[in-house]
Write a structure and sequence with these properties.
- With 423 residues, this protein is α/β, with parallel strands linked by helices.
- It is 33% helix and 17% strand.
- The protein contains 12 helices and 17 strands.
- A 7-stranded mixed beta sheet has the order 4-10-9-8-7-5-6, with helices on both faces. It has a 4-stranded antiparallel beta sheet with strand order 13-14-17-16, with helices on one face. The chain has a two-stranded antiparallel sheet with strand order 1-2.
- Bound molecules: 4'-deoxy-4'-aminopyridoxal-5'-phosphate (PMP).
- 4'-deoxy-4'-aminopyridoxal-5'-phosphate binds next to helix 3 and helix 4.
- Its cofactor is pyridoxal 5'-phosphate.
- GO terms for molecular function: transaminase activity.
- InterPro entries: Aminotrans_V_dom, PyrdxlP-dep_Trfase, PyrdxlP-dep_Trfase_major, PyrdxlP-dep_Trfase_small.
Length: 423
């Protein structure tokens, strides 16, 4: 029974925290959506390589050669994990935020961008200097596709266009209809980038099969917390763009000009956007996590996570004061990410109590998706407010929410303790 597969070993399983009620308890990390704990396997791989650390692409010596091989092999491992097409490039970045900003900086002239208002700020904001259209929050996956089709049909059909969409929401955990949105984008001559920050750790991502043009994700949410992220996909826009950062590694040849200036020939490979000494440990850690997840098998990871989601959902359903937040309905398929409010409770106080009284780490606030959370809480997406805004009085509408999230390393006991604590 794949549901009964053991959790993958992660670091921090034996951390104990003091409780205000006295004594101590093992820490229950239920904030995977912010940063997941490192897989033991990732830690072991990094520790085994660390003594041989050297500069990438820069040295003739043995350790430099070893590091270069490791870095380039990591790129190949990530390409395999994502199901990249032959011509796709895999660029190592710092994070999803960095990856999407890179793509925003590489947009062709006059590119129109289409993005749902429900996106995380990392996928909502980088396009603000482009001709961007923000799409209203859909209430079903089909409505998402229809909203996009309507907007694309009305666009100037001659110029380039890009759609940016999340694969799984960092607020509701709900899965978005990526394949259908990709088909709609392509039918209207647009490209599509998938924000897979919350999808990739929980669900297989197949760039070729889902026919998306680019995928972005972060190592620290994929059990590889060493400062690396990924942008993978079509090479043409990346090759045509100015380098994201100017510097060594991105340039193939540099020469003084007769008029006193400097001429540069930039690389056309992924190195074009990786100026500076690459984070080889970060890249290696991401590749190690990709391999570990593939070896564990997504079928078993998804089944186990579904079993945990059901426990949380069933447990919360028994508490009448709890309202789970969802765009597509409470039963919509989701990854192990779920937000809720508790009638009469300040969400920040509630989250603090879970920590202080039960040793459970969750997150409260607006989760860097202000327009979405405001909509889900019954407000308007343009309502002003900040993370950690003062909470409503009992009976009033909540102004922020509580998020519980988990994944491959989560034992049943953590979600059982969470449900007990909420009760
Ligand atoms: N997109 C989504 C859906 C996310 O959940 C996050 C992180 N919360 C990001 C983008 C940004 O990721 P990072 O902070 O690693 O850049």
């Amino acid at each position: 029974d794949p549901c009964c597969a053991a959790p993958l070993p992660v670091l921090g399983r034996d951390v104990t925290v003091p409780l205000v009620t006295g004594g101590e308890v093992t820490y229950a990390a239920l904030d995977y959506a912010a940063s997941a704990p490192a897989l033991q396997r990732v830690w072991d791989d990094v520790a085994a390589y660390a003594p041989y650390y050297g500069s990438v692409h820069r040295g003739a010596g043995y350790l430099s050669q070893l590091s270069t091989d490791l870095f380039e092999n990591s790129r190949a491992a990530v390409a395999a994990f994502l199901g990249c097409r032959e011509d796709d490039q895999v660029v190592f970045t710092r994070s999803t935020t960095d990856s999407l900003n890179l793509l925003a900086a590489a947009l062709p002239a006059d590119c129109q961008v289409f993005v749902f208002e429900t996106e995380h700020h990392a996928s909502l904001l980088p396009w603000r200097d482009a001709r961007v259209t923000y799409l209203d929050a859909p209430r079903t996956p089909d409505e998402a596709v229809r909203n996009l089709e309507r907007a694309l049909a009305a666009r100037d059909p001659h110029g380039p266009a890009l759609v940016c969409v999340t694969g799984a929401s960092n607020v509701t955990g709900e899965l978005w209809p990526v394949r259908e949105l990709a088909a709609a984008a392509h039918a209207h001559g647009a490209r599509i980038v998938l924000d897979a920050a919350q999808l990739a750790p929980h669900h297989p991502v197949d760039i070729a099969a889902s026919d998306v043009d680019w995928v972005a994700f972060s190592g620290h949410k994929l059990y590889a917390p060493f400062g690396s992220g990924v942008l993978a996909g079509r090479a043409d826009w990346l090759r045509a763009a100015e380098p994201y950062l100017a510097g060594g590694g991105a340039s193939r040849a540099v020469a003084r000009r007769a008029d006193g200036g400097v001429d540069v020939e930039w690389h056309e490979t992924a190195a074009r956007h990786e100026a500076g000494s690459p984070n080889v440990i970060g890249a290696y850690a991401v590749a190690s996590a990709c391999k570990a997840l593939t070896e564990a098998g997504f079928e078993s990871l998804v089944a186990r996570e579904r079993h945990l989601i059901e426990k949380v959902r069933a447990g919360l359903a028994e508490v009448p004061e709890v309202r789970v937040l969802s765009l597509f309905g409470d039963d919509a398929p989701r990854v192990g990410v779920l937000s809720f409010v508790v009638d009469g409770w300040n969400s920040s106080h509630f989250a603090a109590a879970l920590s202080a009284e039960y040793g459970i780490g969750v997150r409260d606030g607006l989760f860097c998706a202000h327009p979405l959370v405001r909509t889900l809480l019954g407000g308007a997406p343009d309502e002003p407010g900040e993370c950690g805004a003062p909470e409503a009085a009992p009976g009033e509408r909540s102004l922020n929410a509580i998020r519980v999230s988990f994944g491959a390393g989560t034992p049943d006991e953590h979600v059982e303790r969470f449900v007990r604590a909420v009760r």
